Amino acid sequence: MDWDQYIFKKINGIVQEIRKPKLNPIEEENRVSLVEIKSRLTYLAQLLTGSAISILPAETTGGWKGAQFFLPASYGRAMDKEGNLDFYIYRVFYMYGQFRLKHFYTNETSEKEAYSQSVNKSKEVLKLISNEFPLFESLFDSVYKFEKAYCESNPKSANDSDAWLYGKWFVFNEQDIEDYQKLMQPIQKQTVAMDKEKDEYTEIEGKHVEDTTVLQVDTKAQEEYTMTHNFEKIETLDSFSGRWRDFDGSDDMDEHEEALRELNLDQLVRVDSPVHSIYRSDFVNAMGLMNMDNTITHYHFSYPEWHEANRVYREDYCKVIYERHNYSQTDYVQNVIEKNKVGINRLTKNSEKYLSEYFVKKRLSNGDEPDLDAMVDAYVDIRTGKTPSENLYISKRKKSKDIAILVLVDCSLSTDGYTNNQRILDLEKEAIIMASEVWNRFELKFQIDSFSSHTHSQCFYTTYKGFHEDWKLTKGRIGDMQSSGYTRIGAALRHATYLLDQVKADKKWLLLLSDGKPNDYDTYEGDYGIYDVKKAIQEASQKSIFTSAIAIDANAKFYFPKMFGINGYTILNHPSQLSESLTKFYINLIK
Amino acid sequence: MNLAAKHMEDIKASENSIYYKATGKEIEVFEHCFQNNLPLILKGPTGSGKSRFIEYMAERLNRELISVVCHEETSTVDLLGRYIVKGASTEWIDGPLTQAIRRGAIIYLDEIAEARPDVLVAIHSLTDHRRKLFLDRHDEVLDAPKDFMLVASFNPGYQRGFKELKASTRQRFIMMSFQYPDKNVEMEILEQETGIDKSTSSKLVAIAAKIRNLVELGLSETISTRLLVDAGKLIHSGLPPRLACKVAISEPLTDEPDIQKALDDIINMTF
User: Fold this and answer.
1) Which residues of chain B neighbour A354 with C-beta distances below 8 Å?
2) Size of interface A-B (CB pairs under 8 A)
3) What would the CATH number be for the domain defined by A322-355+400-590?
4) What is the CATH number of the domain that holds B155?
5) Which terminus has fewer CB within 10 Å in chain B: N or C?
């Protein structure tokens, strides 16, 4: 940072500090922030409405819009922490009432009108909720009292208590109404993390936006563009209005954080160039489906994609480019095995415990131990004058059940991010290597594939180890797994189903390892993606292929049940549990 | 009218001591299966009244009921019988299935999908026109009497994929789905079973309605009528309703603190 930038930053900091309202220390101590209780409130909203509601921080006092409940980012106007928490609970109940009564505008309206309408209709909402929940009235009374008391003691806030109590009405466009009717999940921005040295963070949580407009890139201008260098990328982004400019690749996010927070995200544009750091912001609406009709020349498999809104398949929509990976990084794999020797042995022992119990072959003509049941039967036969059987022994041979598992690894760019100072992809690779070492010892039939995508025209699917390939000869390839693109899960599941269908086995399992939601550049996201995945799972099930998933994302609890159903998935609290989880999955299969 | 049908008519008149509230045509279906010697499978989530229904029907039909709870170690021998060594000789002991056939009872194999595959093979001959049980070890073939009935149950949502009935096995049975009852029926069940008043039962049922059908919660099992009955019993015996609902509903349903708190928030606005 240059000296003039340094001085500006310092002065700006001082000005911001002066402009910041003076905070009451007791108020601050008892203040409850939305982040702390977001998960609880999300469950509460979902329980009340029966649909996949998301809780998002509001720009001001918030309100209900489609499948989102916007709530203030923090609240500290009650006398104690419990009161502040009650405020949030009250607002969720209140928005549930608005949700039930369909309180929204369909035409543009002024901000003032949006707030006053909410106040005018508040009695209706309160009555509805009180009828359903008898004790809601006392909750409202207590919230009302401390809100009014706060306004009386703070003249600056004298007139804003209604806004905090009832929020505002939102304008719903056609899409919002459709979303509301279908109780759809919000469209959320993809989280992508890129390459960066360890111990540095590459992602910051941005401010949240209630309304956005998507601008189209002027592709002609892009083609005619003359190379320029933009020294300040924040300015470039902020003033962007559809004209093309390349953004520089500087990756000093910590220096730009403050400026990033000033960004106006009312207007957005989609670009597909790789990014180096992430400013993540949840946003909704204005993201209709895009049709990226990129023609490809590679040999590919075509698969349909499910369009939930129209309830039809888009035939031959996804083009899956399939390849078998042949490059190896043997050193990487050897290092992983060496480093995790103890872990691999522990997992092997855990599996053996079940294998020795369940793979005992009884009534054999020779074996390690006598079979007591067979001995008793033989004794009975002799006593009753029959010829006894000669099969009187037990063998503890470890014979594998006829199970085929296809492990499908999400290799999208998000796996290039870091969690607890470890790259997600490395954790995935290590876990796969460890589990495969164990599986190989028990002669399990397994295949390891990965997928990523760049729109429906380019869904990449790679096989690293085939069912009939020797693990010892192919394990080096796992080391060469790379992150790229997005997460079009549906197409990958369909191709994996096709491959599994060719394999002969009594039981076939498709195991998905993913760290994120269905997501692709051509707006394969939200409910569209989720329902496509659900459909792909149903298709697999029709071919007697069972599907399970392991999520390396704590937020998966909000959308994995919808895709994989009850008991169809595992969510890891920490990615390091992945190898353990893979082995447990295997043990469940052989039990 | 055949004997079995007449027998059923007679016993319909007598009152059952076991309380069961029909939610559909399940009693009719069961009786027709009994009359036609057809094996029956009840499928449904935990606590939806499958076992209670069997007990009720056994009493209604005046048949002895032998129940076996299957688990991953349940084998053919456990059901058919085995020789045990007694002194210097061996003695054959009938298993519960053999006993049920000999005594013309109803055998109820609870969670049949959990049992080892050999169990399903062993009962195949009982589930078709032959209605015979082959006791190879005892060198005996048993013909199932008219009064014998094979009933099994399983929970389709439990261990999906890991433990499931094969299509060939499923086709040997008549199947009935058990779901949680409608609001009014469930309220009546709660009032009958626990002695709580209408206002409390309607609140409990309203809480259940919020929790059910919400797959986003990721609960491995949703709230059952049994849990509501437990909560009702605790309330009836004097435990404060909020505490009763917490220990009988939110705690058994999940270990996740945030889901528990959200459930408690709903309970606290209701009681």
Assistant:
1) none
2) 97
3) 3.40.50.410
4) 3.40.50.300
5) N
